[in-house]
């Protein structure tokens, strides 16, 4: 159960990174890519970058905070995920395409 939670949390961060990576510094982008996309450890990243593990950890923490704060203000990731669920319902026949369109319009108007 904990593994599933951590995995979904990581997937959410990767989604946030896809949306908001331009809000990060080049160093934060590099650290994020090496840690989440290349699956390197803090020690491995520290060795590559020539810095301490603590420095890598701090950079990743700041990147995650920036991504989460930006999402809290803008909410694009959550809206996109909600719209995707609505589209899945329409594709599976649970709701009509016109109902899906209305729900997505309502979702977008909330913001």
Provide an overview of this structure.
This protein has 111 residues and is mostly helical. The chain contains 6 helices and no strands. The model is unreliable at 1-6 (pLDDT under 50). It is elongated and about 55 Å long. The longest helix has 22 residues, at 53-74. The chain has helices at residues 2-20, 26-37, 42-49, 53-74, 76-92, 97-109. It folds into 2 domains: 2-74, Arc Repressor Mutant, subunit A, CATH 1.10.10.10; 77-109. The two termini are 33 Å apart.
Question: Could you name the key traits of this structure?
Answer:
111 residues, Arc Repressor Mutant, subunit A, 2 domains, disordered N terminus
CATH class (first level) name of the largest domain: Mainly Alpha
- By CATH, the superfamily of the largest domain comes out as Winged helix-like DNA-binding domain superfamily/Winged helix DNA-binding domain
Number of domains: 2
Q: Count of DSSP helices?
A: 6
How does the overall form come out from the CA principal axes? Answer: elongated
User: Any idea what the radius of gyration is?
Assistant: 18 Å
Give the proportion of residues in helices.
over 70%
Query: How many angstroms does the end-to-end distance come to?
Result: 33 Å
Please outline what is shown here:
This protein has 111 residues and is mainly alpha-helical.
Topology:
Elements: H1 2-20, H2 26-37, H3 42-49, H4 53-74, H5 76-92, H6 97-109
Helix pairs in contact: 1-4, 2-4, 3-4, 5-6
């Amino acid at each position: 159960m904990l593994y599933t939670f951590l995995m979904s949390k990581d997937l959410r961060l990767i989604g946030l990174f896809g949306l908001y990576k331009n809000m990060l510094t080049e160093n934060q982008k590099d650290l994020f890519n090496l840690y989440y996309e290349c699956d390197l450890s803090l020690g491995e990243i520290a060795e590559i970058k020539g810095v301490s593990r603590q420095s890598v950890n701090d950079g990743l923490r700041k990147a995650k905070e920036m991504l989460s704060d930006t999402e809290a203000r803008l909410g694009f990731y959550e809206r996109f995920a909600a719209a995707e669920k609505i589209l899945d319902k329409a594709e599976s026949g649970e709701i009509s395409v016109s109902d899906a369109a209305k729900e997505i319009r309502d979702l977008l108007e909330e913001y």
